[in-house]
Design brief:
Layout: H1 6-13, H2 19-54, H3 61-88
Helix pairs in contact: 2-3
Length: 89
């Protein structure tokens, strides 16, 4: 017996779900991408803040660099997830 295709498996898995649950299932990938973006920006900014305090910098260069690195990395990850999903469908 052959394996069912992804579409058939997805349809079979969603048979017992409510409309709200189906909606959440469609959004879960995008919610994860948004969370990754927020964590990347916040994490790298926090590391930059910590480095500025550690080296007693008067100008927050590490904080700014951390924020920029977090934004670039977070947006790259976000767009790969969002645009990659559309290409596969």
């Amino acid at each position: 017996m052959s394996d069912p295709s992804d579409r058939e498996r997805r349809d079979r898995d969603e048979e017992g779900l409510s409309d709200l649950a189906k909606g959440y299932r469609g959004v879960e990938r995008y919610a994860g991408a948004a969370t990754t973006l927020v964590v990347a920006v916040g994490g790298f900014t926090a590391i930059g803040y910590w480095l500025d305090k550690k080296f007693e910098n008067r100008v927050p260069w590490f904080l700014l660099a951390g924020a920029v690195i977090g934004m670039v990395g977070g947006f790259i990850s976000f767009f790969r997830t969002v645009l990659g999903k559309k290409r596969r469908d």
